[in-house]
Write a structure and sequence with these properties.
The chain is of the alpha+beta class and about 240 residues long. The protein has two helices and 14 strands, in the order ααββββββββββββββ. The radius of gyration is 26 Å and the shape is globular. The two termini are about 25 Å apart. About 5% of the residues have low confidence.
């Protein structure tokens, strides 16, 4: 809860108290007889209304997103990959459809087709000031609909990736899109290092101390001809200082 939220709560409480006071004055001026045993009853009523209002407000207000990339301020520089073999993500945009935290996420529009030379996989990423991310876990939360499950024998998957100053890449462990991960938020991670992650990839001479881009890759399973056209959501992208 930030200062803006606190001010809103205080203002709402003050308005409620003011309204009750006005009502009392109106009742007195019109000489309407009301039996009040004690002011404690009025205070109890006011506090009850405040408690109920605050509870509803807190329940309906999503937790704040304090991650590096929570997409509350737009797409934050993320773009779809245009490299010839990785064009399965055709658009990215801020979305209010769903969010892991806050009110927004990044919606990736996918046009994936297994076996296609250009669209069997797709990526979305953003460039960052070159920095040392060696041994620093990068976390990304992803939401995929059940329609992206694909062929259980050749499951579709998700990876987090990074690129160094020379655009050499490291891709994290391939994470299958399973029924347990469909229609819900799940976490995908990568810890940049000097050894390729299990079921991942690292380009020769990759330098984890010179990272210039962070992104997410979505792909149709190897050997599958499954097709998916729809949305994928990304939120709460973060790593430690």
């Amino acid at each position: 809860m930030d200062l803006k939220d606190i001010i809103a709560i205080v203002t709402a409480i003050a308005s409620l108290i003011s309204a009750v006071a006005t009502l009392i004055q109106v009742v007195k001026k019109r000489k309407i007889t009301i039996v009040i045993k004690s002011w404690g009853i009025w205070i109890s009523v006011i506090l009850t209304v405040i408690f109920i209002s605050s509870t509803i407000w807190l329940w309906t207000t999503p937790p704040a997103d304090t991650s590096r990339y929570g997409f509350e301020a737009g797409s934050m520089g993320w773009i779809p990959q245009t490299y010839v073999t990785d064009q399965g993500i055709i658009e990215v945009a801020q979305s209010t459809d769903r969010a892991k935290l806050g009110r927004h996420s990044l919606k990736l529009t996918a046009d994936l087709e297994g076996g296609h030379p250009n669209r069997s996989k797709g990526e979305a990423y953003m460039e960052i000031p070159i920095q040392n991310l060696e041994n620093k876990p990068i976390s990304v939360w992803v939401y995929v609909p059940k329609e992206l499950l694909g062929d259980p024998a050749k499951p579709n998957g998700i990876q987090v990736f990074v690129k160094d100053g020379s655009w050499r890449g490291e891709y994290g462990t391939w994470l299958d899109i399973t029924p347990a991960r469909a229609d819900t938020w799940f976490q995908v991670t990568l810890v940049p290092g000097r050894l390729a992650p299990p079921d991942g990839y690292m380009a020769p001479d990759f330098d984890p101390t010179q990272i210039r881009a962070v992104g997410v890759k979505v792909a149709i399973g190897e050997g599958s001809t499954y097709t998916y056209r729809g949305q994928i959501y990304v939120d709460v992208v973060d790593w430690p200082e």
